[in-house]
Design goal:
This protein has 461 residues and is of the alpha+beta class. The protein is built from ten helices and 20 strands. Strands 1, 3, 7, 8, 10, 11, 13, 16 and 20 form a nine-stranded mixed sheet that branches. The longest helix has 12 residues. It starts with 9 loop residues before the first helix and ends with a strand. The structure holds heme C. Heme C binds next to helix 6.
């Protein structure tokens, strides 16, 4: 659905491509349509190679890789043409076998989700066999018809970051930008899509709706920062304002589908609100400024009002039961379970819910910082249901996952959240070029703090 057009020269990207050096040796053939067939070795000449690029592999790469691996995009090399893919073929098996590419953190044993980016065993094997055979090209006439693009979403609000911005903090900068919400009547957001301005550096985007009564406090954050927008690691205020209840409108990661909310549902936005967009930039020397675009579809009414509910142990946040992650320790686990059916109507006054009513979970997300290694969210008590399990937490690949079968939570069911951290010297991030040392960690919004937060998209039944 997101056909990526080549915006930036490929040469620029290959320079940065240190960890695929075996593959990039072939980069001199990239860009030439005819050179590719020479690089693939003798197996291309056989009239019936068992697996060929055109007949078998192109469709897999297009569906599972090219959303990120195309010229000018976030991933460090292109897999978008035969020349590009054959040049790096020998570098592909390691990450395919390790399951790290394509990046798709949820464990399939827990649940199934829409817009699944993962690759199935047959498709993976096809690519591995192709590499094994010397990456034969085959005949372009054998190519299957291109996959049908899904119906485009009709957006009615088109926002852009207020000004172009070039991040300076390496390796990562979290910066929020505010935009006035343009609607003058109460409306519901039913879909959201992000088009990054500078694809090479935009790692993820989360859009929040700042309610009118908090708009002034957020504007003050923006004014206090001399650069466009303001720094905001963690939440939309970077921990300066209690932002746990600020509704998410949507999240985007590269290769992600435009966020179409579950049919008939939407998140209410009041006139006078602000849209705060948190940009996670993967700062990259030489990349141009970014001015990403956010498109939103609204509806005057929806069948079921939705809310993105953050879920965690309030005692960790308040510090009365500290979420201590001791310096130097691995395998540190904290978990929490609670029946939220009494709390939900308070958080969610427009949802038509009374205390104790059942509700429906449509999508789930987890949030930890960089020392997290594993997280899960599920139901316990009444029913034992897994909602989301991320067995190898990667801060860089966060997302919200829409359940193919929404789950109804009934009185007696408790939401259960569990996170595990590794706070040893081997698992410390680099911040602004400085390798961090282990120290005792508690709950907090800063890069040196940790969080363990579940976020569920819920409606009434
Ligand atoms: C959602 C975006 C995305 C998709 C989809 C994706 N990649 Fe990647 N890939 C990346 C990024 C970004 C990197 C750079 C390293 C990183 O940030 O993890 C990368 C790096 C790689 C590397 C270098 C080694 C490594 O693991 O870092 C290989 C090989 C690779 N990808 C192969 C593939 C293949 C094959 C597919 C499809 C089956 C694929 N990728 C799908 C984003 C993606």
């Amino acid at each position: 659905m997101q056909r990526i057009t080549a915006i930036f020269p490929l040469g620029l990207l290959l320079v940065a491509c240190g960890d695929v050096s075996e593959g990039s040796a072939g980069s001199d053939t990239a860009g030439s349509d005819t050179a590719g067939s020479d690089t693939a070795g003798s197996s291309t000449t056989g009239e019936a190679a068992a697996v060929t690029y055109w007949r078998d592999v192109k469709a897999v790469l297009d569906a599972k890789c090219v959303g990120c691996h195309s010229p000018g995009n976030l991933a460090p090399f292109s897999l978008a043409s035969y020349a590009d893919a054959s040049a790096v073929a020998s570098a592909l098996p390691a990450s395919l076998e390790a399951g790290t590419m394509p990046p798709w953190p949820p464990d399939a044993a827990c649940g199934t989700y829409l817009h699944d980016r993962s690759i199935d065993d047959d498709a993976r094997q096809l690519v591995l066999d192709w590499v094994e055979l010397g990456a034969p090209e085959g005949d372009p006439a054998d190519a299957p018809p291109p996959a049908q693009a899904p119906e485009p979403i009709a957006f009615d609000i088109d926002l852009q970051l207020p000004e172009p911005y070039t991040p300076t903090i390496a390796p990562d900068e979290y910066r929020c930008f505010l935009m006035p919400w343009p609607e003058e009547a109460e409306t519901f957001v039913t879909a959201l899509s992000v088009t990054p301005g500078e694809r090479q550096i935009v790692h993820h985007v989360i859009a929040f709706a700042i309610p009118p009564d908090q708009a002034e406090a957020y504007r003050a954050l923006d004014e206090a920062d001399p650069d466009p927008g303001y720094l905001c690691y963690g939440g939309p205020s970077g921990g300066k304002i209690n932002d746990g209840r600020v509704p998410w409108l949507g999240a985007w990661v590269p290769g992600g589908a435009p966020g179409d909310m579950p049919e008939g549902t939407g998140i209410k936005v009041q006139p006078g609100s602000l849209v705060a967009v948190q940009m996670h930039y993967h700062t990259y020397p030489g990349a141009g400024p970014d001015q990403s675009r956010i498109q939103i579809r609204t509806a005057a009414s929806v069948d079921r009002v939705a809310v993105m509910m953050p879920f965690t142990n309030p005692a960790w946040v308040q510090g009365s039961e500290p979420m201590l992650i001791p310096a130097g320790e691995a395998g540190v686990v904290h978990s929490f379970a609670a029946d939220v059916s009494n709390y939900l109507p308070l958080l969610f006054p427009d949802g038509g819910l009374q205390a104790g009513d059942p509700f429906v979970v449509h999508a789930a997300a987890l949030h930890m910082h960089t020392r997290g290694v594993r997280g899960s969210l599920g139901l316990t008590g009444g029913q034992d249901t897994c909602l989301l399990d991320i067995p190898r937490w990667d801060f860089n690949w966060q997302g919200s996952y829409q359940l193919t079968a929404p789950v109804t939570v009934r009185p007696g069911d408790k939401l259960r959240l569990e996170c595990e951290w590794d706070n040893t010297a081997e698992n410390q991030p680099v911040e602004n070029g400085v390798q961090q040392q282990p120290k005792d960690i508690l709950w907090g919004e800063g890069t040196g703090d940790e969080m363990c937060l579940g976020i569920v998209y819920v409606t009434g039944t």
